[in-house]
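REQUEST
  id: r-88c1
  op: predict_structure
  target: Ferritin-like domain-containing protein
  payload:
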Amino acid sequence: MLVGLHTRIEPLRLSIFLAMGLLGACGDSGGNTAAGDTQTGTTQQTGTDGTGTPTSTGDTTTGPTTGMTGTSATGTDTTSSPTTSTSTTGETTAVSATTGDTDTGNTSTAESTTTTTTTTGDTDGPEPECTQLMQGFTDPPVPSGWVTCGGKLPHRVEAEVCLVPAPPSNCNVPDQPCQTNDDCNEFPFGSCQQINVGLIGCGCNYGCETDADCDPGFVCRCAGDVLGPVTRCVPSECTDDGDCGDQLCQFSTSQGYDCGPEVVNGACTTPNDLCDTDPPCGDTPCAHNTDNDVWECSLVACGRPFMVDEHAVTAPPAARDDWRTLAAVREAPEAVRAALAAHWTQIALAEHASVASFARHILQLLALGAPPEFVLDTQRALADEIEHARLCFALASGYGGSGVGPGPLAQAHQPGASDLESVVAAVIREACVGETLSALEAREAAERAEDPGLRRVLARIADDEQRHAELGWRFVRWARQQLSADARARTDAAFAAAVADAAVAAGHMAQEPGTPELRAHGVVDTPLRAAVWLRGLEGLVQPAATALRAAA
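RESPONSE
  id: r-88c1
  status: 200
  body:
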């Protein structure tokens, strides 16, 4: 299922850098490049960005495209691939926009073959320069089924069998969920791969050989330049160009702000499309908007979890009326009211658990001798979460037709971490990663809500969650200054693990069925949440974590 995101990430990123006192790391515009943003990574890039601007050569943080070389922001191959120029009369030898037939020759692994043709005679002009994208990890090269033409987004001309469904492991980071491909055995074609979103971790990827290995609505995308570092199932509304009539089965090369240039999802082009490549969109990608069925420049929420023994816990729901505030509930079709009631009950219980999390954190701050502003701001966040819970219980009660609230939170007495390093690790996971993503989720929910009253409620929650995320980043920066160099290195590892876990979870959520009919009611379903998380990890958590590490 394809998802187009509505929210822009720059305001939240700017606010986090302001909160940490690192505004200078954002660049002149306050939202493009973080300090140290190109310090960590494994991707060598050389060439141009598709607009004629030279790109850097060296290690870059391009997220999940680690290990791939020579791809520009448009998805057009910029390495020194073999190029053949041919002049013909009356016919062409270039790869066409709808077929992938070309002579690839013998090239190295993951290279692409480019054929440039100038035509004369009965033609409307020269065919666009096309690049046939080749499978990675194969020698000699094998076509992937995707091509790019004229600097536009890639499109799939035909399905090909992926010869390397499980690439070799590239994990060299200790203490990760996996170290070798043998550790990834939950599903077929498992491989242990590095995940680089500013900090490096490792996680399992499960590949495929053909479309038959994928769920409905997904196609099997081989590894390769532009395509991505690993073979995997990717969502697509079309199988290949043949499904699109006189249009193309086109694929975006980024799902959100600052994503790496690899194939993400696909849909047929339309005569009404507003873009067919990324550069004209500036800092946002060209992506398919499923709501409007058009390619265009693309521009729930729960609070901090209450963790007990590394598991988030909530109170059970209970029939009661005292935990809901006054809130008007929009009329909704009977068929979706039960689903909306269940959704808002779950969100309300999570917000209720956040009250316990912040209450415990206040005691931790006092035990650690933290400055008073942290204690005061955490107390305010606690009050915010009480109101969030009441608002969400009101929505749940309205849609469900009877009052619902929280039962006893039996684990509320459980103590949390007491030493500074352990508290920092918890705040990294729960606030810097968790609440930052929650703030983006809440903003996405508010953008999609059609009812003005509900939109105001969700916008208020989004504003509060944003401040809570900022508070977490501020605390971690202060705490790192109190730690030794070795302890700071361990907090970097905690960051890497938290980010890797979130990225793996997002990958799983992206393959779950969605409920797009609920999005107009402010519901962020699992495919939409996956898109929000992936965008947030790459475009927000990445630069903030890198700048934080460089500042301490």
